[in-house]
Amino acid sequence: MILADKILNLRKKNGWSQEELAEKLGVSRQSVSKWEGAQSLPDLDRIVQMAKLFDVTTDYLLREEQEEETHPAVTADEKDSALRRITMEEANAFLEAKYTTAPRIALGVLLCILSPVSLFILSGAAEYGFFPFRNSTGMMGAFAAGEGAAVCIGLIILLAMVAAAVIVFIKSGELTRNYQYLETEPFETAYGVDGMLRQRRDHYRGRYMRSNILGVCLCVLSPVWLFLGLFTDNGMVLVFMLSLLMATAGFGVFELIRVGIPWSAMQKLLQEDEYSVAAKQRRKRLQPVSTAYWSVATAAYLGWSFLSDAWEITWVVWPVAGVLYAAVMALCAAFMKSDTDK
Other CB atoms closer than 10 Å to residue 50's CB: what's the count? Predict the structure, then answer.
């Protein structure tokens, strides 16, 4: 076992991300990444510092022929609970599955976003006299018949698009179902896997950044269509502008998801950022809090709705709960992290 592998294994054993180890050693994350990828070697002072930090000897770190550190603190239970090892073949198979499913999932999300567009256009066409279905029962009857048919057709298209998206999600989930443990369980990678992943991530970084910029710009600029529609009194034009807003935002989200899924897959395999061992442990500890939070939110919504019978107002519970959820989870995570550091 070479020094790069030893640094990597010891870091993961302690549940630290590259950023956390770099902070403890007083170096940059890029330095730690190069050490673990065998692209550079730490100086002697850093090796001594790491030996103290990991509670191992410098001989263990420097001598390649010494595979395991003899350490009295390692118990039989710890040896039995060895981390799952991800081979090069498994890593490549997982990445290929993510590359395959990314555009499919992005398309499914796009279908969900665009699904109401047909309903908007057909309802607007019926309201402003552009829908062809009429009957001979007079003006009001013709309007009612046209609007009813438009809404019916629009709903059918909406449900068909959502159903197609659900099928895409289910089939995509089946391709990666066997890799769910990567998000929740700590693991270790075989020799050479981390180096391969970093190389592929560096190669993918440019495409990831360009697509992220494009996606964000489309989402940010999408309301421009609605602003342009405000300059006309034609209601049908306003409906088309609203449809263009949703389409523009939808394609922006499509681009973000299409490149974001492969990028997050590489982060999962490298166990960095939100997929680090420490982050997984925090998410596991936060799961009961999340369950309790949404149970309380649901109870508050139903209680307020039934007692006040003001269903047209009580829906506001959900956007408020969504905003507060992020704040509550962030506070709980910060508290757990500070408690662990003590």
Answer: 22
**How does DSSP classify residue 82?**
P
Q: How far is CA 154 from the centre of its chain?
A: 31
Residue given tokens 């019978």 in the structure block: 309
Buried residues in 91-120 as b, exposed as e (16+ CB within 10 A): beebbebbeebbebbbbbbbbbbbbbbbbb
Structure confidence by residue, pLDDT tens digits, 268-303: 888 887 777 777 777 777 778 888 888 888 888 888
Contact 264, 95 (CB under 8 A): no
Q: What is the pLDDT of residues 217-259, one digit of tens each?
A: 999 999 998 888 878 778 788 888 888 999 999 999 999 999 9
DSSP letter (8 states) at residue 275: G
Whole-number Å distance between alpha carbons of 278 and 336? 11
- In the block, tokens 């850093």 appear at 46
At 22, phi and psi to the nearest 5?
-60, -40
Q: What DSSP string runs through 94-135?
A: HHHHHHHHHHHHHHHHHHHHHHHHHHHHHHHHHHTT------
pTM for this one?
A: 0.63
Neighbours of 334 (CB within 10 A): 11
196 C-beta neighbours (distance < 10 Å), count = 16
Report residue 296 as tokens: 């309380």
Q: Between the CA of residue 185 and those of 25, 89, 223, 290, what are the distances in Å?
A: 26, 19, 41, 19
- The two tokens of residue 221 are 């600029």
36-39: long-range contacts at Cβ-Cβ below 8 A with a sequence spacing of 24 or more?
36/4, 36/7, 36/8, 36/11, 36/194, 37/4, 37/194, 37/195, 37/198, 38/2, 38/3, 38/4, 38/195
Q: Which helix (H) or strand (E) holds 86?
A: strand 84-86
Q: Rounded CA gap, 204 and 93, in Å?
A: 17
Q: Which secondary structure element, helix H or strand E, spans residue 204, and what is its range? A: helix 193-221
Of the candidates 182, 187, 190, 194, the one whose C-alpha atom is nearest the C-alpha of residue 83 is: 187
Residues in the chain, overall count = 342
